[in-house]
Amino acid sequence: DPQYIVRFMNPGRLIKVKNLDEDFGWGAVVHLEKLKSTVTSEEQMTVKVLLHVTKESAGSKVASELKAVTSPKEKGEMTIVSILFPLIQQISSARIYIPDDLKALDKRMAV
Questions:
Q1: Which residues, 6+ apart, have CB-to-CB distance to 6 below 8 Å?
Q2: What is the distance, to the nearest Å, from the Cα of residue 33 to the centroid of all Cα atoms in its chain?
Q3: Cβ neighbours for 104, distance < 8 A, ≥ 6 positions apart
Q4: 14 Cβ contact list (under 8 Å, min separation 6)
């Protein structure tokens, strides 16, 4: 239930992300967002996560269009993606330092 994990979604928290057959491994939480639905009055929570994806799919901001880096030899790119809670497989107790400004590629790659 999302209400129980919201308090753990701090910037830098490591979470394991999987979307259908695409296992992205561990990513770092950047920001938690509450979105209000225009159709209903319900709020939906999304998590902005820094994920390691292939360079070809890095331009997309939609989780379903992203491709995970599958081999250590493959060069990828760190990109920020908004995901829904059902894509979170695990939450780590570990947190890492996240720079304030992640717009530059070199800052994202340094994480």
A1: 32, 45
A2: 12
A3: none
A4: 26, 27, 28, 29, 91, 92, 94, 95, 96
Helix count and strand count (H, E) for the chain: 2, 5
Q: Does the global pTM surpass 0.85?
A: no
Residue among 11, 12, 26, 42 nearest 88 (CA): 26
pLDDT tens-digit map of 48-87: 999 888 888 877 767 777 888 777 777 888 888 888 888 9
The CA distance from 11 to 98, in Å, is 7
pLDDT tens digits, residue range 102-111?
A: 777 777 677 6
User: Which tokens is 1 given?
Assistant: 């239930």
**Nearest by Cα to 102 from 68, 66, 70, 78:** 78
Q: Which residues contact 41 (CB under 8 A, 6 or more apart)?
A: none
